[in-house]
Write a structure and sequence with these properties.
- With about 300 residues, the chain is mainly beta.
- Among the domains are: about 85-155, Immunoglobulin-like (Sandwich), CATH 2.60.40; about 165-300, Sandwich (Jelly Rolls), CATH 2.60.120.
- It has helices at about 10-15, 75-80, and strands at about 1-5, 30-35, 90-95, 100-105, 110-115, 120, 125, 130-140, 150-155, 165, 190, 200-220, 230-240, 250, 260-275, 290, 290-300.
- The strands form 5 sheets. Strands 10, 12, 13, 14, 15 and 17 form a 6-stranded antiparallel β-sheet that branches.
- Strand 5 and strand 6 form a beta hairpin.
- The radius of gyration is 23 Å and the shape is globular.
Length: about 300
């Protein structure tokens, strides 16, 4: 873990290309980071090795804030004293739909509940394909209980039938369109760059293999670089891949590494999804996507 106390927010630092562009705030911003990416990286060409890249995945860590008084003795020694606080519970669901709960505090007792159900003692992984809200907490005798961890899971949709219908462009050997649905955040779809590059709009069309009741789609930007991240967009859906109608959602995506959700105005039954990129976050002419996914509440009943 690392800590900083600066007159700048993380967004201030990320948005400035030179220190002269930073404007000092009156407030002091305290940042606590579980882990940080090391210095270095390729602005174009080969990326750093995957083991050195931090991908946008959930991370659970805890901290405590204690006021200092002189009666506590030496400040440096008081700062490293650990309080008997139980660590928070990590709540994760795998591709098979199994939810696993874990706590870094040895011998801690984990209890959990799903939605408004009864509280249960965690004995091992449990299935949650249909989705729901999991609330978990860890306790230990003679220790302060940990905070309640809350994770919301949507309906688990199998990708086994998914396929890319078309993409207007892809860069061979690096940015094939299929990378946008391979479940690997380190790969990505990238339109052609260099002499063969074409301008916006760029689009990618996805067949989900079945009609789902869609609430939205998820977009994971390219990791390790902001090249090609989508700015303005239009989203279309279709039941048969022929009739599309007007865009069901439009807007602008943020230049961040975290996954973003494009919500539909209402739950819509569809099998095909088309995402159209109208611009790139920094005005470049290409588009990239690490992963596309869907937020579904159910399958259409036959």
């Amino acid at each position: 873990m690392s800590a900083s106390a600066l007159h700048f927010t993380a967004a201030d630092l990320a948005g400035a290309e030179h220190t002269s562009e930073l404007q000092k705030r009156k407030e002091i911003v305290v940042c606590l980071d579980a882990v940080q990416l090391g210095l270095g990286g390729a602005s174009c060409g080969p990326r750093p090795m995957s083991k050195y890249i931090l991908y946008s995945t959930p991370i659970v860590f805890s901290y405590s804030l204690r006021p200092y008084v002189k009666t506590m003795g030496d400040l440096a020694e008081a700062a490293v004293m650990r309080l008997p606080i139980v660590s928070p519970v990590s709540v994760e669901r795998d591709q098979a739909g199994l939810v696993r709960l874990d706590c870094d505090t040895e011998d801690a007792r984990i209890t959990y509940q799903i939605d408004s159900g009864k509280s249960m003692v965690y004995q091992g992984p449990f299935p949650l394909n249909s989705g729901g809200v999991v609330m978990a907490k860890a306790t230990l005798d003679d220790a302060i209980p940990g905070p309640t961890s809350v994770r919301r899971f949507n309906l688990l949709v199998s990708r086994s039938q998914w396929r890319i219908v078309r993409a207007d462009s892809e860069h061979p050997g690096e940015g094939e369109a299929v990378n946008a649905i391979d479940g690997k955040p380190e790969t990505y779809w990238h339109t052609k760059w260099g002499g063969a590059a074409t301008r916006h709009p760029h689009e990618i069309e996805l067949d989900l293999g079945q009609i789902l009741q869609l609430k939205g789609i998820t977009y994971l930007p390219r990791q390790g670089s902001d090249h090609g991240r989508i700015g303005r967009y239009e989203l279309y859906v279709s039941r048969d891949g022929q009739e599309w109608g007007l865009a069901v959602a439009t807007g602008r995506l943020k230049n961040v590494a975290e996954q973003q959700v494009i919500n539909l105005p209402k739950i819509t039954s569809a099998r095909y999804v088309r995402l159209v990129a109208l611009s790139e976050v920094k005005g470049n002419i290409w588009t990239s996507i690490a992963e596309l996914g869907v937020v579904a509440v159910g399958k259409e009943k036959k």
